[in-house]
Amino acid sequence: MRKFAAEKSRNLLAHREIFSSVLQHPTASLYSSSSHSKKSQLLLRFLNTTAAPNPSSSSESMASDYSSTPVKLDSINPKVLECEYAVRGEIVTLAQKLQEELKKNPGSHPFDEILYCNIGNPQSLGQQPITFFREVLALCDHPAILDKSETQGLFSADSIERAFQILDQIPGRATGAYSHSQGIKGLRDTIAAGIEARDGFPADPNDIFLTDGASPAVHMMMQLLTRSKNDGILCPIPQYPLYSASIALHGGTLVPYYLDEATGWGLEISDLKNQLETAKSKGISVRALVVINPGNPTGQVLAENNQQQIVDFCKKEGLVLLADEVYQENIYVPDKQFHSFKKVARSMGYGEKDISLVSFQSVSKGYYGECGKRGGYMEVTGFSPEIREQIYKVASVNLCSNISGQILASLIMNPPKVGDESYESYSAEKDAILSSLARRAKKLEEALNGLEGVTCNRAEGAMYLFPRIELPKKAIEAANAVNTAPDTFYARRLLNATGIVVVPGSGFGQVPGTWHFRCTILPQEDRIPAIISRLTEFHKGFMDEFRG
Amino acid sequence: MRKFAAEKSRNLLAHREIFSSVLQHPTASLYSSSSHSKKSQLLLRFLNTTAAPNPSSSSESMASDYSSTPVKLDSINPKVLECEYAVRGEIVTLAQKLQEELKKNPGSHPFDEILYCNIGNPQSLGQQPITFFREVLALCDHPAILDKSETQGLFSADSIERAFQILDQIPGRATGAYSHSQGIKGLRDTIAAGIEARDGFPADPNDIFLTDGASPAVHMMMQLLTRSKNDGILCPIPQYPLYSASIALHGGTLVPYYLDEATGWGLEISDLKNQLETAKSKGISVRALVVINPGNPTGQVLAENNQQQIVDFCKKEGLVLLADEVYQENIYVPDKQFHSFKKVARSMGYGEKDISLVSFQSVSKGYYGECGKRGGYMEVTGFSPEIREQIYKVASVNLCSNISGQILASLIMNPPKVGDESYESYSAEKDAILSSLARRAKKLEEALNGLEGVTCNRAEGAMYLFPRIELPKKAIEAANAVNTAPDTFYARRLLNATGIVVVPGSGFGQVPGTWHFRCTILPQEDRIPAIISRLTEFHKGFMDEFRG
């Protein structure tokens, strides 16, 4: 039922879609009169082909039942209508439906279970939490047991000690109280110390804003910077669709720059410059540059000299650098390492007052993968006290982020150290997760590259592969015939045949005329061979069916 | 320093303030040409008098240090500038400064500690969490101990059983995974059952959206309903400033209706009608009515027949009823009880498709007071599937609310029952908190009513008193002389003299020319006599100083 409703609303949207904020702008022939016109025409085509199929007459009758209620699709905020978030979009809705069917009628589909490879949600696929982190959280949730003798037998000594330390940092030891709107000061001290240890440059606890995951932090910055459609945010294409969704919700314009698939999703400063100039010439005031490093969905890790160029570009052009660094612990190749943009900027001699830089971090990613805890922070540097005050004010309207998430954010930035009782088990758990992720990334990448018409860059970091598929002409025609984007058509067929859930590339943006999907590397390692064989078998069948 | 920055930004705002969304509207002579013109002229005066004092030259030099950074006050989203949230505003910033001074130099002020009566944050003032709830949260955070023998000695049997039940409701028992964007289905089942038990009418788990506290839920609805300044939301005056802040952030218009202080903050349907008609005549499309019951900051509990009138009004006028019911457990007088608006509407025969109603609930209030957990939900009824789909989409952009908050929301709607091992201790803890709050409310109300020039309605519910102060003419002149609202002037003096933090009435809105403050009833009971004597002594001195 929900699916039909979704389809109806999508049809009402007609040509509005993920990039509508660009395309609907009054001045925005932006991407049809420039040197990028081919891309943009194809972008338009992308918009048309993602419109959903089969407007069902049943949805008409459903809507009419609610005819006496006041809120209609044409009377809600159009920015909400415009917003799309493919990671939990149509394919996932279909997956949930199949899952319910499997529960009711086991054997009703050619697979036993749905395998969610659509989202970076490690623990949903069996990854176990880091024991030390959970010990500390449990003790902080129920401090009454801290002094009990049985607790010694159940919890590590350093988790008990850490819980005491944290409670001492919380006014009144009240883990059930609202905190300072930026988060508990003592926890921010710990996080700042962790950043200093990571970067080798000072960090100020007053620059830290603890948030319910990185997403609310991104929203806060978009809300701050966006006055109207005339304000633009430079975003990579492909991008994590939180950015396009947030820009749409706040009424701004997404200014795309393309990562170059042929050079391992390279970021070319010349492309940034071109896109910036094109946007400017159309009256767009570009406010910020989003960089996701390691990349999502693309998995590349930026080289330090590339980061220096980006910093210089932002400095020169007066752009805020919004650095999505939530995958900073997820690096899988020996020839790459993570450098925070703040470290890079400081190494270049740029101080607090030289460059405006926001770094986003989350407890949901890394080796910890604590998505359900909704913890994270942003480190806000290079903004005047008046602007900082405005950010604080917006944070204060929602009072504070959840305290367990705050505690966890402090733990990931200050994990057990050599000599602590938990250090050995902590290290073993961490290393096992990261090395297994590296092996899974490699195996899946090799398997994908072995498929007909598929090419896939290696995942240097993050949690995803983003293979490109050369779809046969007949498959594209079949997709067009049901008014579906070809990559969505492929992903739907894959799901129906195998139970594997991936996200079509059109949800992230891609060079028009190319087709991709995003697949996480998160299924447990012993499941990977079966996944590869199911995927391979499906793909062969699909290509056989549609080969010209 | 932060204070100076805040003042500078406020001065830049000039006449923009809490009701600016009304006043700046192109068509909005709304409140100066109507029968309510006296109120509105005074409202304008309120706007002017809340402008902050002493634009400091030091803020000029601070700002210039950041001259090479790109983001300036005049280049950020003006809706962010407009937004105000007095509960964590100027007085609280001053309180934090004094607290730091006390820490560095004990004895530097005529009090030992800051007493935060500005915010409904019970555990920050020593209220203890309900043991059963924290046991379950701790066990869900660290399920590895569930099977250990020591756990039996540390945790109640029913908390262990409940933790197992909850884990069984979570796919893969993964408390560290993102959940369904509306929240874990099994927990929504529990909440829906709790609503049914409370109301005696069916509740659907698919109507429940679990959120990080009630505030994000309110933002979601404001975001959905607000297209432009031409969309209005009817809000009580005085109101909890989340509403004015959220309306400002989403670019809508606050349409005020006044609660009648003389009749115990009564809600008159005739006033609602007048305000609605006036707004309509100015081109405002009024979308929704906010009702806070029990009231914040006003503490009244609506009578059922008054609620029926409100439901009929919304039905007739095609308004969404946004029912803030977060204080549903906080009732202190025997002659009043809580009725949810859904129960009232269903009792009147209005079904799902007859009225659009959103009820907000939170784990932060009630007897539980778990503010730091950021849990809550909204029950969304009377919206078509297409609209529901849009709400779901916006929820999905932020993935999900935190799982501990979700679990806690299920616990408060399904606490221990007679026969459970924890029932006795749970009941004792709950009753002790609620009966103590009732006594505190009564004592503080009586004390306030004993002060010269102060009148205070009883707190029938919620967590606040909102006394009115007849300020001497000289005090008002002294406040005007430093460009401060008289009630802010009073609150600042109170803080500097006693360490007691209250929120000036101007932060909530009040009939212009009247002055109030909001004071929580949350300090622990043994502290109340000292607070009363400090407040009484201060008030006498203040009145003596300014008496004509």
The total strand number of chain A stands at 14
What proportion of the residues of chain A is helical, as a percent range? 40-55%
The gyration radius over C-alpha positions of chain A equals 24 Å
Oligomer: homodimer
Beta-strand content bin of chain A: 5-15%
Overall shape of chain A: it is globular
How much is the average pLDDT of chain A? Answer: 89
The CATH topology name of the largest domain in chain A reads Aspartate Aminotransferase, domain 1
Reading off the top of the CATH hierarchy, the class of the largest domain in chain A is best stated as Alpha Beta
| CA-CA gap between termini of chain A | 36 Å
Q: Which regions of chain A have little confidence, pLDDT < 50, spanning 5+ residues?
A: 1-63
CATH architecture of the largest domain in chain A: Alpha-Beta Complex
Q: In the CATH hierarchy, what is the superfamily of the largest domain in chain A?
A: Aspartate Aminotransferase, domain 1
Most extensive interface: pair and counts?
Answer: A-B, 116 and 115 residues
| Biggest beta sheet attributes of chain A | 7 strands, mixed
Count of individual helical segments of chain A? 21
Strand order of the largest sheet of chain A: 2-8-7-6-5-3-4
**Structural classification of chain A:** alpha/beta
How would you describe this structure to a colleague?
Two copies of one chain form a homodimer. With 548 residues, chain A is an alpha/beta fold. In chain A, 45% of the residues lie in helices and 11% in strands. Chain A contains 21 helices and 14 strands. Chain A has a seven-stranded mixed β-sheet with strand order 2-8-7-6-5-3-4, with helices on both faces. In chain A, helix 6 (90-104) runs parallel beside helix 20 (486-498) and helix 10 runs parallel beside helix 17 (403-412). The first copy, chain A, is globular and about 70 Å long.
